[in-house]
Write a structure and sequence with these properties.
The two termini are about 25 Å apart. This protein is of the alpha/beta class. Helix 1 packs parallel to helix 9, helix 3 packs parallel to helix 5 and helix 9 runs antiparallel to helix 10. The mean pLDDT is about 95. It has a single domain, classed as 3-Layer(aba) Sandwich (UDP-N-acetylmuramoyl-L-alanine:D-glutamate ligase). The strands form three sheets. It has an eight-stranded mixed sheet, with helices on both faces. A four-stranded mixed sheet has the order 3-2-7-8. It is globular and about 50 Å long. This is Sugar kinase. Pfam families: PfkB. Belongs to the carbohydrate kinase PfkB family. One of its GO terms (cellular component) is cytosol. GO terms for molecular function: 2-dehydro-3-deoxygluconokinase activity.
Length: about 300
């Protein structure tokens, strides 16, 4: 086993989600790449290491995050504590199962997660899979993004596979032109990219999921698997091309973490030896359970 089987890179925050009881809220720790790490930890055997790379503060909620990672079996050996910043906070509002978010993250310590190139290099050293998202990139300043890209290039040259979820969030970017250019720059470094078609259509103008596959392969991605909200999943690249159709669709209670859990289900299945089509089916089955419950981390989906 390598030093880290999977290292997830990004921002974890305090999550406020609506309770089933009126006017009551539940507090948790979540964030797109952390959600994927959490599901991976439950889907993979204990012999496989799942770690998280970020930056946190020194206050109570940052400590809660570190305590949470420890309790959930997610490694945090390379997370630095920032004396000047704290972790961010977000609240989920729901209407007919669809989510909207309110964020308080302007002073998030995670914006400085790439400030120490040597630490980043050590964290990636020996890692089998490095996983990040468009949100990871969006919160970083230009210098931080460049540092992260360089570290990923170096790690990839030594055998690390880079997995990227484009996770387009234009509110986090100066403008959509910068967002799209940076996403495609990350795609060029990725052995696997896991975009969501609705976002790709809206911001890149893709006519259909196959166009998304072709565009990212043209950027240099090794393999592309396009999520489509329960519709047919298109994939293509070095490991094969095809469509997985006939997937069971659910009416969502809460779509939070739908894509994050899909990504975890897909990666866990591939690490378990499944082929692409079987991995997509297993990922979809997990995601449709997740969207039947409130909040990002659904223990019922990975119980047993």
């Amino acid at each position: 086993m390598t030093k880290n089987d999977i290292l997830c890179i990004g921002e974890a925050m305090v999550e406020l989600s609506q309770s089933p009881q009126p006017d009551q809220w539940q507090l948790g720790i979540a964030g797109d790449t952390l959600n994927t790490a959490w599901y991976l930890r439950r889907l993979l055997p204990a012999s496989r290491d799942v770690s998280y790379f970020s930056r946190v503060g020194t206050g109570e909620f940052s400590q809660r995050m570190l305590d949470f990672l420890a309790a959930e079996g997610i490694g945090a050996d390379h997370i630095l504590r920032d004396p000047e910043r704290e972790i961010g906070l977000y609240a989920i509002s729901l209407k007919d199962g669809e989510r909207s978010f309110s964020y308080w993250r302007d002073n998030s310590a995670a914006k400085r997660l790439a400030d120490d190139p040597a630490l980043l290099e050590r964290a990636l050293s020996g890692t089998r899979i490095a996983y990040l998202s468009g949100i990871t990139l969006a919160i970083l300043p230009d210098e931080g993004r460049n540092t992260l890209f360089k570290a990923l290039e170096q790690a990839r040259a030594k055998g690390t596979k880079v997995v990227f979820d484009s996770n387009l969030r234009p509110r986090l970017w100066p403008d959509t032109t910068i967002m799209c250019a940076t996403i495609e720059q990350a795609a060029a470094l990725s052995d696997l990219i896991l975009p969501s078609f609705d976002d790709e259509r809206d911001y890149f103008g893709d006519a259909d999921p196959q166009a998304t596959v072709a565009r990212y392969l043209g950027c240099g991605s090794g393999q592309v698997v396009v999520k489509a909200g329960g519709a047919a999943v298109h994939f293509g690249g070095a490991e094969g091309t095809g469509i997985v159709d006939g997937l069971i669709r659910e009416v969502p209670v809460d779509t939070t973490s739908a894509g994050d859990s899909f990504n975890a289900g897909y990666l866990a299945a591939r690490l378990d030896g499944a082929g692409i089509e079987q991995a997509i089916q297993r990922a979809h089955d997990l995601s449709r359970i997740v969207i039947g419950h409130r909040g990002a981390l659904v223990r019922q989906a990975v119980a047993g």
